[in-house]
Design brief:
It contains 19 helices and 11 strands. The protein is an alpha+beta fold and 518 residues long. It has 3 domains: 157 residues, no CATH class; 80 residues, Winged helix-like DNA-binding domain superfamily/Winged helix DNA-binding domain (Arc Repressor Mutant, subunit A), CATH 1.10.10; 267 residues, no CATH class. β8 and β9 form a beta hairpin. α3 crosses α4 and α14 packs across α18. The longest helix has 28 residues.
């Protein structure tokens, strides 16, 4: 190595060498002596180097060896707070060394990306400040400033007692929910880490360092996940702090909301039940197939249509009140939120409305209420939506692929019957004109249900204020509005079952499914 090159590299590293010396000795005078000894040793030995790129590895090797000689000469133990790899000859020293290396790695894992890249490039990869400056397209002064700042941060961090948060060993599982036309955001939360990142940044904005300690995950891994979450819009970043943009409804909130809505709707249920019973005769006269025309079965059809129309009317007005359906960066169009429970306190397991078959000759709708799960629970095949197509084709009397596994599942679930070689709908099927007539017959019932659902919405939004962080208060009200609205339909079904207006059959069938032929 040429003399000028060695002097230049050493000059760039004076601050680093002095920082190393000060961390080892603990006082300014000894640090100056040790730093001077290191520089002398470097200048007397650099000529043995064949390549410039190994200078920094050589420099720190000389620093460590010179420090060991310094210890023997001083007959003393190292000062607390060192953070550079050292090599002692005693078992006690080796233990200290391993602990310090572990602490150093911990602190490196907490550094923000820019700081971490420069630190690793300089100390581990042996790159010069000028080289780092060129590769990262920043000024040499910034490189020096960051290295100086990082040395201080590492030293302070190593001396600090840090504790991992609860989520490092007890991660939370969150479940995505949405209302709208389409939602791709659910794909982001199929793993625990994104769920816990969202949770860590929920109550207040946090830095990557704070998030890393809470989750027990190194910053490099968090950065990769955060990039996708920020791009999607579910998390925002400002001045190095991250905050969740998605409301998390807790089981405690939903439990209290269910109880409050049920209490609030108690005066309405008797009127709804009476109105439904009064329409049985008129509904029996309609032309529909797929189910018996007993009083009990007709009441289920009435309740289903009543709640479907009422919910649709309230839903349309709800979207108007919030300025329309949100559009997310990934193309999702929906109200999106998370829950800390998988439907434990939810009265509805899913609503799937107006799904057509390929030739658009028929369509189906499905409401999965929690209380009717023993008789009906349709879980659609979202990969190709064959569930709805098969149901609509059977309703329209069309042939279907009998080897389709989804068909087998629909038969097992009691949604489709196989009789005498034919496939039949085990749910009400009617023409569009008969459906229109049915809605006219139930107009008064629909009005009563609509008012009950509106009341439930007022109760739910009223409870939302104290259950979410202040910055998300408006989003919390919107989330609670839709959650209360959907659950109100299920709560009405629960209450109609409890007062024996509705009864559950002993066999499986599509109680809250309808097929409509055009």
């Amino acid at each position: 190595m040429e003399r000028n090159k060695a002097h230049m590299l050493l000059s760039e590293s004076i601050d680093s060498i002095y920082g190393f010396a000060l961390s080892k000795t603990g006082n300014k005078t000894d640090a100056e002596d040790l730093a001077n000894d290191i520089c002398v040793q470097i200048l007397s030995s650099y000529k043995n180097l064949n390549e410039d790129r190994v200078f920094f590895a050589f420099m720190w090797s000389v620093a460590r060896n010179t420090y060991k000689k310094f210890l023997r000469r001083k007959n003393r133990t190292p000062a607390q707070g060192s953070f550079i790899d050292i090599d002692y000859t005693t078992p006690e020293s080796r233990c200290i060394d391993k602990e310090e290396i572990s602490l150093l790695r911990r602190e490196l894992s907490l550094l923000a990306k820019k700081y971490r890249e420069i630190t690793v490039a300089f100390y581990i990869d042996g790159k010069s400040g000028a080289q780092i400056s060129k590769e990262l397209n920043i000024s040499p002064e910034m490189v020096r400033n960051i290295l100086f700042k990082v040395r201080k941060m590492l030293k302070e961090g190593i001396e600090m007692k840090r504790e991992y948060g609860e989520k490092s060993y007890n991660p939370i599982k969150l479940y995505p929910y949405s209302w709208g036309s389409r939602c791709y955001l659910v794909n982001l939360f199929k793993r625990l880490l994104p769920c816990n990142i969202l949770y860590a940044a929920y109550e207040k904005p946090v830095t990557i360092e704070e998030m890393s300690l809470e989750l027990g995950v190194g910053a490099p891994y968090l950065e990769n996940e955060l990039e996708a979450l920020v791009d999607s819009g579910v998390i925002s970043e400002q001045s190095g702090k991250y905050s969740s943009n998605v409301v998390i409804l807790t089981g405690e909130f939903e439990k209290s909301m269910y109880s409050a809505i049920k209490t609030g709707l108690a005066p309405d249920i008797a009127g709804i039940a009476k109105a439904l019973r009064s329409r049985i005769g008129a509904v029996r006269e309609l032309n529909f197939t797929g189910c018996a025309k007993t009083d009990g079965r007709i009441l289920w059809l009435e309740a289903y249509i009543m709640l479907d129309v009422a919910l649709g009317n309230v839903n349309d007005k709800a979207w108007e009140s919030v300025g329309g359906m949100p559009i997310w960066a990934d193309g999702s169009e929906c109200e999106f939120l998370m829950k800390d429970n998988d439907g434990e306190y939810c009265s509805v397991y899913g609503i799937f409305g107006h799904w057509e078959n390929k030739d658009k000759s028929a369509w189906t709708e499905i409401y999965n209420y929690k209380r009717i799960k023993p008789c009906q629970y349709v879980k659609p095949n979202w990969n190709d939506l064959s569930t709805f197509e098969i149901m609509a084709d059977v309703a329209a009397g069309k042939s279907v692929d009998r080897d389709n596994l989804e068909l087998m599942k629909l038969i097992d679930d009691g949604i489709i019957k196989a009789e005498d070689g034919r496939l039949l709908a085990n749910f009400p099927v009617m023409h569009e004109s008969e459906l229109a007539r049915l809605k006219e017959i139930l107009a008064d019932c629909i009005g009563l249900a609509e008012e009950a659902i509106k009341k439930a919405v007022r109760i739910g939004t009223g409870l939302a204020g104290t259950s979410v962080p202040k910055r998300l208060s408006e989003k919390g009200k919107t989330a609670a509005m839709f959650d209360a609205m959907i659950n109100a339909a299920g709560i009405i079904v629960d209450m109609l079952l409890e007062n024996n207006t509705l009864t559950l059959p002993d066999s499986k069938e599509g109680l809250c499914v309808i097929g409509v032929v055009k």
